[in-house]
Amino acid sequence: MAEATCSAPGKVIFTGEHFVVYGAKAIAGAINLRAYATATTRNDGVISISSEDMGIHAEWRGAELLRESKRGASERLRPIREAVAGLIDKVKGSGLSISINSQIPRASGLGSSAAVSVACVAAGLYAYGYKPSHSEIIDLASIAEGIIHYRASGVDLAVSTYGGVISYRRGSKPAMIDIKKPMSLLLIDVGTPRRTGEMVRRVNLLREQYISIFEKLREAVEEITAECELALVNNRYERLGEILTINHNLLRAIGVSTKELDEALELAMRNGAIGGKLTGGGGGGCLIAVVNEEDIDIVYKKLSRAYNVYKVAIPQEGVRCDSLRTE
Ligand code: PMV
How far is Cα 174 from Cα 62, in angstroms, rounded to an integer? Predict the structure, then answer.
C-alpha cells in the first residue's frame, strides 16, 4: 500500500465574488489555514472516506454504500467520493482510503470545501504514483464542487490549487498577482453558517429581474477589481481598505450581506480597521478587515472580545504533497 498526504489552503476573496459567476474578474488570496488529506491505496475496490473534523465516515464499493458512521454521512461525503471515483478511473486504480483533517472553518466563505476537494484529489493521485498538473487537480476537484455548489465559478479551486494571490476570470487560467511584501489581514467570523449555493441562487433570481442594473454593477466590480490589484501590488493598505469597503456596499446592494456582517464591519472600523468586506458567498460567515500593520494586534484583541477572529497571512503556497510513502 502506498500513502500520500497533501494539503491545500483556504482563501479570501478580495473582490468580485458573485459577479465572477457572470464573467467579472475576481481577486483571491490563499491563507494560512489548510485542509489536509491522507490517501492510502487499496486493492479491494473500496472507497473509504473519513472526515475527522466532521466526525463522519462512509465506505462504498462502486456505487453501493457498504457502511456509514451515522445517517446522512454518506450523503455529506458523496461529492468527495465522486471526485475520488474520477481519479481512480484516471489512474486505473482500485480502491482508496482517505482521511480528511481541515483547519478551515466550514461554511464561512473561506473555501473550505474547495480546499478539501483539492487536497483529497491530489493525495489520491500522488498515492497512485501520479504527479498531477494543476489543471488535472482542478478538473477532478470540480466534480465535487459541481455537486456542492450551484454554478460554481471555479475561483475557489483555482486559488486553493495555485496558491498566492490570483486574478481570476471564469474559463481562463488564473494570473498570479505579485505581492512584493507579505500581508496580514483579520478575518472576523460572524457565525451563521450558510450555503454558498443558496446565496448564488438568490443572486441569480435578482439578476434575472434586473438584468441591466446587474450589468452596471458588474461593470463597477470590474473597476473595483482593477483598483484592488493596483493597491495589492503597491502594498497600499489605505487604498485597499477603502476599495474593499466599496465592494462590501455593492454586495449589500445585491442582498448578500447581513445585519451581523454590516455590524461587524462597523465595529472593526470603529476599532481601527481601515476598511473591509464580507468574503465569499455572504449571508453570514467571514468578513475581511484591512488594518495597518502596527495596529493589527490591538485591533485583533479588541475584536476578539466580540467575535471569533483569525489573523491570516497572505500569500501562501497552493496545493502541495506533504509526505509520500511508496509501496
Ligand atoms: O462562499 P465561498 O467561499 O464558497 O465563495 C464563493 C464565491 C462565489 O462567487 C459566491 C461563488 C463562486 O463559485 O464563485
Answer: 35
CB distance 153 to ligand 1 below 6 Å:
yes
pLDDT confidence tier of residue 149, bands split at 50, 70 and 90: confident
Q: Which domains can be identified in the chain, with CATH numbers?
A: 2-176 (3.30.230.10), 183-314 (3.30.70.890)
| Atom from ligand 1 closest to the CA of residue 110 | 3
Closest-CA residue to 77 (of 95, 94, 93, 53) = 53
Which residue minimizes the CA distance to atom 7 of ligand 1? 280
Catalytic residue among 156, 178, 262, 322: 156
Active-site residue 156, yes or no? yes
Q: Is the dihedral of CA 70, 71, 76, 81 positive or negative?
A: positive
pTM for this entry? 0.95
pLDDT > 90? residue 9: yes
Beta bridge partners, 37, equal 6, 100
What is the best residue among 13, 157, 166 to mutate for testing ligand 1's pocket, by most ligand atoms within 8 Å of CB? 13
SS3 state of residue 254: coil
Q: Look at residue 191 in the predicted model and tell me its pLDDT.
A: 87
Residues sharing a CB contact under 8 Å with residue 297, sequence separation 6 or more, in sequence order: none
